[in-house]
Specification:
The protein has 107 residues and is mostly helical. The protein has helices at residues 3-22, 26-37, 41-51, 57-64, 69-72, 79-87, 92-106. Mean pLDDT is 79; it is low at 8-20.
Length: 107
Protein backbone atom coordinates (compact mmCIF):
# COMPACT_ATOMS: atom_id res chain seq x y z
CA UNK A 1 0.00 0.00 0.00
CA UNK A 2 1.42 3.37 -0.91
CA UNK A 3 1.79 6.15 1.61
CA UNK A 4 -0.93 8.23 -0.08
CA UNK A 5 -3.41 5.35 -0.12
CA UNK A 6 -2.65 4.64 3.53
CA UNK A 7 -3.32 8.29 4.44
CA UNK A 8 -6.62 8.27 2.56
CA UNK A 9 -7.76 5.10 4.35
CA UNK A 10 -6.59 6.46 7.72
CA UNK A 11 -8.40 9.77 7.16
CA UNK A 12 -11.61 8.02 6.09
CA UNK A 13 -11.49 5.73 9.12
CA UNK A 14 -10.79 8.65 11.45
CA UNK A 15 -13.66 10.67 9.97
CA UNK A 16 -16.12 7.81 10.37
CA UNK A 17 -15.05 7.25 13.99
CA UNK A 18 -15.39 10.95 14.73
CA UNK A 19 -18.84 11.06 13.14
CA UNK A 20 -20.03 8.07 15.15
CA UNK A 21 -18.82 9.67 18.38
CA UNK A 22 -20.52 12.95 17.52
CA UNK A 23 -23.97 11.45 17.16
CA UNK A 24 -26.37 11.88 20.03
CA UNK A 25 -28.11 8.83 21.44
CA UNK A 26 -31.91 8.56 21.11
CA UNK A 27 -32.16 8.54 24.92
CA UNK A 28 -30.24 11.79 25.15
CA UNK A 29 -32.38 13.39 22.46
CA UNK A 30 -35.55 12.21 24.20
CA UNK A 31 -34.34 13.53 27.56
CA UNK A 32 -33.58 16.90 25.97
CA UNK A 33 -37.00 16.98 24.32
CA UNK A 34 -38.74 16.22 27.60
CA UNK A 35 -36.73 18.99 29.27
CA UNK A 36 -37.66 21.40 26.50
CA UNK A 37 -41.32 20.41 26.93
CA UNK A 38 -41.02 21.63 30.52
CA UNK A 39 -40.51 18.51 32.63
CA UNK A 40 -38.04 18.64 35.51
CA UNK A 41 -34.53 17.31 34.83
CA UNK A 42 -35.01 14.37 37.20
CA UNK A 43 -38.34 13.38 35.65
CA UNK A 44 -37.06 13.85 32.08
CA UNK A 45 -34.00 11.67 32.68
CA UNK A 46 -35.95 8.92 34.39
CA UNK A 47 -38.71 8.87 31.76
CA UNK A 48 -36.28 8.93 28.82
CA UNK A 49 -34.46 5.90 30.21
CA UNK A 50 -37.72 3.95 30.49
CA UNK A 51 -39.24 5.07 27.18
CA UNK A 52 -36.45 5.01 24.61
CA UNK A 53 -36.41 1.24 24.01
CA UNK A 54 -40.18 0.90 23.95
CA UNK A 55 -40.99 3.41 21.20
CA UNK A 56 -40.10 3.39 17.52
CA UNK A 57 -38.05 6.17 15.96
CA UNK A 58 -41.21 7.50 14.30
CA UNK A 59 -42.96 7.67 17.67
CA UNK A 60 -39.96 9.39 19.23
CA UNK A 61 -40.08 11.97 16.44
CA UNK A 62 -43.77 12.57 17.13
CA UNK A 63 -42.91 13.24 20.75
CA UNK A 64 -40.39 15.85 19.61
CA UNK A 65 -43.28 18.02 18.50
CA UNK A 66 -44.16 18.49 22.17
CA UNK A 67 -40.88 20.31 22.80
CA UNK A 68 -42.48 23.47 21.40
CA UNK A 69 -45.00 23.46 24.28
CA UNK A 70 -42.63 25.13 26.70
CA UNK A 71 -42.35 28.18 24.47
CA UNK A 72 -46.03 28.83 25.06
CA UNK A 73 -45.97 27.79 28.75
CA UNK A 74 -43.05 29.29 30.60
CA UNK A 75 -41.78 27.34 33.59
CA UNK A 76 -42.05 23.69 34.49
CA UNK A 77 -44.96 21.73 33.14
CA UNK A 78 -46.81 19.33 35.40
CA UNK A 79 -46.72 15.67 34.43
CA UNK A 80 -50.50 15.50 34.12
CA UNK A 81 -50.53 18.47 31.72
CA UNK A 82 -47.74 16.83 29.72
CA UNK A 83 -49.68 13.54 29.52
CA UNK A 84 -52.72 15.51 28.34
CA UNK A 85 -50.61 16.83 25.45
CA UNK A 86 -49.21 13.35 24.73
CA UNK A 87 -52.73 11.98 24.54
CA UNK A 88 -53.53 14.61 21.89
CA UNK A 89 -51.01 12.87 19.60
CA UNK A 90 -53.64 10.12 19.29
CA UNK A 91 -51.18 7.26 19.48
CA UNK A 92 -52.24 4.81 22.20
CA UNK A 93 -48.82 3.18 22.40
CA UNK A 94 -47.03 6.51 22.93
CA UNK A 95 -49.54 7.43 25.63
CA UNK A 96 -49.25 4.04 27.35
CA UNK A 97 -45.44 4.02 27.39
CA UNK A 98 -45.25 7.68 28.48
CA UNK A 99 -47.82 7.32 31.25
CA UNK A 100 -46.17 4.14 32.59
CA UNK A 101 -42.82 5.91 32.62
CA UNK A 102 -44.31 8.93 34.38
CA UNK A 103 -45.94 6.75 37.04
CA UNK A 104 -42.76 4.74 37.57
CA UNK A 105 -40.65 7.87 37.85
CA UNK A 106 -43.03 9.67 40.19
CA UNK A 107 -42.17 7.34 43.08
Amino acid sequence: MTAIAFRVVACALGASLLASCATVSPESRLRTGLLEAGLSPRMAGCMAERMVDRLSLMQLRRLQSLASLRKSHMGEMSVDRFLYKVRALEDPEIFLVTSKAAIGCAF
